[in-house]
What does this fold into?
Amino acid sequence: MKLSFHGAARMVTGSNYLLEIGDKKILIDCGLFQGPRRIEEKNYEPFPYRVEDIDFVLITHAHLDHTGRLPKLFNDGFKGKVFATAPTVDFVGFMLEDSQKILHRKAVRKGLSFNWNGRQIKELMDRFEAVGYREEVDLGNQIKFKFREAGHILGSASVELEAKGIKIVFSGDIGYPQAPIINDPAEIEDANYLIVESTYGDRIHEVRGNTRELLEEVIEKTINRNGVLLIPSFALERTQRLLYHFNDLVENKKIPSVPIFVDSPLAIKLTEIYRKYPEYYDQEAYDLFSSGDDIFNFPGLELTLTTKKSKEINEVAGPKIIIAGSGMSQGGRIIHHELRYLSDPKNMLLFVTYQVEGTLGRKIFEGAKNVKILGHNVEVNAEIARVDGYSSHADQKSLLKWVGGISKRSSQLKKVFVCHGEENPSQVLSDKITQDLGLNVIVPVLGQSIILTKNNKNSKLN
Ligand SMILES: [Zn+2]
It folds into this structure.
């Protein structure tokens, strides 16, 4: 059995692992490279394996850095089947449309070749087969796999794959425990080989206080002074977690009733998919749903799909709340609201997501008093707040706990591959796993192949 790392190796995007078992070839994820130009350009390079020979693709979750090169794979001659959980299949159908248009535009600008054809996405989607958690799928040749809950976003999964007496587990993206709506990552019983993500391998999330109560305080403070509360948010998962908490706060009369706008067409469409899959909720969300409550809807909620509706938000007098993308204020509708409302000290800007260096969000988060938005100089007089606990990613502590749990339950686990992280987080997590858990760890480089044998001692590097 041979495992090759063709993405997300010493980087955080482009997830793409190839497993070769006898004459069967299986990909785990087929994601987009995102970030600086030299990384994004890899999206236009040929796949480093014969695409026609790939039999199956197993998709861990819907984020583009795990799915965004599927259309390219299809276009290049992939003839096999794609497996994912049902919510993932639905999300992917929506998200690929947008991402492929963007990729195509960038390719045209740079004179690169990229075949884009909207029909292909529909044909690609016909290759998908939805699989539930813990459902065993037989891929033939004594290869079988199961999806397990990863607690990252709705429908997100880790993969447990068994072949020739070897069990290999791919973490996918692991969520932060205690997140609303979905269950915590599954406690996987055993593994011989483990591939673990390390996005936050060097960081501990400090979660101060109770997330829902802190959100309530920020809302009350803004409403009491008649202000506008702006919340930059990601369309997938983050927005639904906010809506879930707003649903509780409004319906249980913990906050006064004010207009609450979700000003993001993508978030609105993705929320519809959340409604379809209550069986993927955690107990609390499922019980609420079963009692007849629409957990993403409440009095005062306004969904603004069109640009016209979005502009009309300006005419609604405060106090009001606006949730919009992008999550780091790098474009999207939020920047129009920031342009309008940031200069007034009555207003509040609430951060619920990590702000990457170099983004407008990060500048404001770090206290910039003056920022440039859409060509205008804007004074930042609004109050800046943050509420932790909405993160979709496990921190170092939770990742160690996840790996440690498997290692405790399974005496057979001797090798861990640390992937899906920048150089430093991967290395830091790798050192921690070696020191704290006494496991044998490799941080693979892009393109590296490793032979997996039943007796780990014989594993050799190519
Ligand atoms: Zn993800």
